[in-house]
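User: what does the whole thing look like in 3D?
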Amino acid sequence: MQYFVQQLINGLTLGSIYGLIAIGYTMVYGIIGMINFAHGDIFMVGAFTALIVFLILGALFYSLPVVIALLIMMIVAMLLTSLYNWTIEKVAYRPLRGSFRLAPLITAIGMSIALSNFVQVTQGPRNKPIPPMVSTVYNIEGISVSLKQIIIVIVTALLLALFWYLVNKTSLGRAQRACEQDRKMAALLGIDVDRTISITFVMGAALAAVAGTLFLMYYGVIAFSDGFTPGVKAFTAAVLGGIGSLPGAVLGGLMIGFIESMWSAYFSIDYKDVAAFSILAIVLIFLPSGILGRPEVEKV
Amino acid sequence: MAVTVSPERGVVATPVQRATREALYAGAIALGLFVLFIGLRTDQNISNELILVQRWGLLAAVVIATMLGRFLYVAYGQPFLANQKIADIATGLLPESVATRFFRLPYFIAAVVVVAVLALLAGSLDGLLGPGLAGYARFARALAIIYALASVLFYFRTFILAHFSALGITALALYPIIVVAVLAGYAGSMAGGFQGSLKWVDNFGIQILIYVMLAWGLNIVVGLAGLLDLGYVAFYAVGAYAYALLGTHFGLSFWILLPAAGAMAAFWGVLLGFPVLRLRGDYLAIVTLAFGEIIRLVLINWREVTNGSAGISGIPKVTFFGLMTFNVSDPNYIAKVLDIATSSAYYKIFLYYLILGLCLLTAFVTIRLRRMPVGRAWEALREDEIACRSLGINTTTTKLTAFATGAMFGGFAGSFFAARQGFVSPESFIFLESAIILAMVVLGGMGSLVGIAVAAMVMIGGTEVLRELDFLKQVFGPDFTPELYRMLLFGMAMVIVMLWKPRGFVGSREPTAFLKKSKAVSGSFTKEGHG
Amino acid sequence: MSDTNPSPMNDAILQVDHLSMKFGGLVAIGDLSFQAKRGEITALIGPNGAGKTTVFNCITGFYKPSEGMLTLNRRDGSSYLLERLPNHEIPARAKVARTFQNIRLFSGMTLLENLLVAQHNKLMKASGYTVLGLFGFSGYRKASAESVELARHWLEKADLVDRADDPAGDLPYGAQRRLEIARAMCTGPELLCLDEPAAGLNPKESMALNALLMDIKDNTGTSILLIEHDMAVVMQISDHVVVLEYGRKISDGSPHSVRTDPRVIAAYLGVEDEEVETVLTEVGDEDVIEQLDTGPDSAHGPGTSSSYLAGPVTDTIGHSEGERVTVSKGASKAGQFDAKSSAAASKAAAQAAAPPAKAEPAAAKPTAKPSTAKAPAKSKVAGVSNRLTAPRGGEADNLTRIKGIGTVNEKKLNQHGIFHFDQIAAWKKADVAAVEAYLAFDGRIAREDWVGQAKLLAAGKETEFSRRVDAGKVETSHASGKTAKTVAGKTAAAPAGKRGGRK
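Assistant: Here's the predicted 3D structure for the full assembly of 1334 residues, as structure tokens:
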């Protein structure tokens, strides 16, 4: 039982990170119906930005409270990563809007390749380890909960609440939902569609940057190629939850996190990704639009 | 790259004013993007701790280059491109295009002269100019050769376009012969010619043709049937491992295993397709991606059978239809049988023709199938699945046949790949490969065999050429490794080409039947499918 | 009807029996029955949202109906239950072809290719499921040439042969419609279902379409079922018209008889509520209703259409199968028409303070008519155990004080002997089911707890809703409500309209 709860906590931590990345996928998909393949690499850029900011802080200050350091890392990562995603949308996706459906998919793949190789060229191909930032571990009745995990879950919960508020209660969120429903009509009603889409990319990137910072803090290492696997997992999570649905993305992220940690704990760590992907396939066979996705009505 | 200038400001500003503003804007964005990534570099010091290395000069250079590029584009590039579309008021003629201005007879003659002079001095260049300048001279010679060849192609463009397929196949068939002949002439001996041809036949020829075959196979699924498959490499892996495992353990011949690998891949295609084909659009995409990853992860982790990440080596070579082999130690080694000098080039040239044959088989089958009811049903499925069902077409079996046919060619290509490498490992079957193959199909123009082949040549040939650009070391210093930039440029090129031609190189579609006259269907009418 | 006017089964190419289609709680088609005769053009008309396309989608297998039976009888004597066939087998085996409201051509393929795709199954067989064709067997080449000839034939019929090698997406709208019909004909159908073939056509194109359809009918023996809004087309070419409204059939007969049916006029042309009211109040009471009610009969006359009762007294809601269709009255215009007549009648009765014995038949007449002709309907409501022949003490309770019972429903309940709260309060499950079936109110009685409300009201207590009724905030037909004069149809439309109204 303790072991199970332990795994549950591990899964929650992992799932939070996946959920944060998955929101970026699902929002972009919801609003312009494209799979932003570069999103995993945006996450990686976020983590790398946090890494560099961490090193700058280390060089400038002799000692800085961890919370403040983490906050600065997070904010800078959010800003710069948003700039990356904003630029990519403007350069690689916007000119292709309304064109052939697969064209932006290919530019997204191109951007993904370009981004990871850009980081490889500028920062080198090796793994970048940092000293542990937070090492406190609490032991509650045989279950060890690290402070890192608590931070991840709390930050995720706070961000999701903020995000939920933004999407559901503000005029920006209303504009986003309007664009999601019918972009042309939204434009006719005076919504700046380009701006709304840009903001969607910025929001997705900001969440991915937070995920990247948390990832760096949790694992303490990042490499240029680390965008792909979490990216694909998060995309899987988004689809599992029902792509286009925000609660679905979080739910999918948590599910993938739980599946992975449980599978590694009880079966075999080698096949944890196989398990996650297989469960995706099985869920989609029975629920073709994911768990919380709107079932696609075949309009005849 | 769209220019977004608010109209009320755009009207009054002159191009230069606007360009200045745009350049400043671009510079600010570039600064934001690159300040941490180019301005600083994370490096490990001796005690394995990360330290930051400052590179502000490089950052400034990149930002200024960005600004300059943006300025030139907005100030001169855009007006120039806009002018290309406006006819002259007096004459009513369109201005000369970039191409006709670029390719002119005097320039061509000059280029030929440059090539001739530099080729004559080839041996003594180092002595005359010193090693540094000689590098530049060789670079200039390469550019002049490319220019001269491009001019010839441009001059004969109508003829080439009219007979593209025939010319292309002839050129491909003659390619190894020409390479060997040219290199033999250069080296002065037949053996030297064969030895030198290895790189050209293997890296360029075979490598590109494998991708052409894969892209043509995927074209059936994505281009014709409109089903987005992001895990195509899985079938390639099935084919490769089928040959690798059966060939090494049971010693079966390539000629038996080639169809077996194809059948096995097709079987896997059906196995995957059956449950997932009722999914639509991006759900299908992610499940195929997941399937590709599952296959790769199983190959990595099922160590007892696949030997994990270490892969399988010692895969038997292809024999010359069982008559001769390419192993020097065998009694019926080709050089012994034919009584010629020993060379590893024979095998490569044989493989080249083998993959060329497989490619032509793929093309033949695709063209033939397109003109048959099943092929038309694939295309109809891409256009409108609901209408298909209203006409009595069983969409499930139609999709499955597309999946299985595509997978079969992937399996063929896989078993060939294993035979050519003599070694397979899961490294070769990552998602990036699927993405590259898909990019070829889309960049080439969905459904168009010629376009896809051109896209494969440009993409693979282009990245291979980057390996050859040693002269860039002369420009950027000896530390510069062009190979490092290969994938970065590859990714950026993918984006740029897609922006330039969103429907691919060949956007139009050839009808499969006609009553009076076959007319190509414009790309604006064809759909890309929802599956 | 089938018992009084038996027709051989194979005379009807398509027999639709008790077809229902529900989407969640929404009833798109409710218990629809009709038949399309072989060699005829049957038109399915009705206002927007009447469920016509849904009927098509059920026939062609895109939807699986919730209930009902769709029988297709082929010329060779075989019959198919369409609701049991997979989607793609309906065209292939039952030989039903269709077109779509929003044209669905293969726009990137040429006209010829479009027509060749339509001959897929035939060509697949000829090509030995691709295997033989791949090696160029002569059988396939011959079949292929034949299929091109068939395509050419239909292109000529559709006047499109000059554009055979152009992409279908390049055609003007009217030509695309014709091409879609030609494509459907290439499947060799016995029943051709056309979904608004004349929509968006100009008069000239519309004429050409008529000619094409008549040609198909006369020369191929293909029966046609069409949905159409363009009355010129419908009246000119169809042999038989079925009118739907809100998923229910409101009329069925020859174009002429349908055209003069006031319920169709009300439903189709959309008679304004005020107009009806004015007319009714101006002219008076029962006479009007009587007149309106028998109006259609005098127009059809006995025997004008096989699907009408040969009796002088009939109800337009009734139809050939002797089945009562339960229209959710308030929702439909035709229903409102009925409702208004009854409301006006009851008002007149109430004003005259007529004895209940007189009021009852007068009020009951318009909608209760079926009970004389339609046995099943009667037996259904007879299922309610505690019916009374007349209200106790000559005065009925104001049933509209129960939330969920509008004036129309009150009237209906009264017709079937439910006058008092205590009667409703005493309902058991079976009674509730019977009443629900009659009112077409699935689950609503339980949901709104009529029984519970009635118990309170019977005990002299009040409910939150009844207080509002008494205060005049909610319209009722009873004098207790201040707004009793307002047309009952409106109030009734509100609750019932929400569930029945599908747009």
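In plain terms: Chain C has a mean pLDDT of 69. The beta strands of chain C are 12-23, 26-37, 41-45, 67-73, 79-81, 96-98, 191-195, 223-227, 240-245, 248-253.
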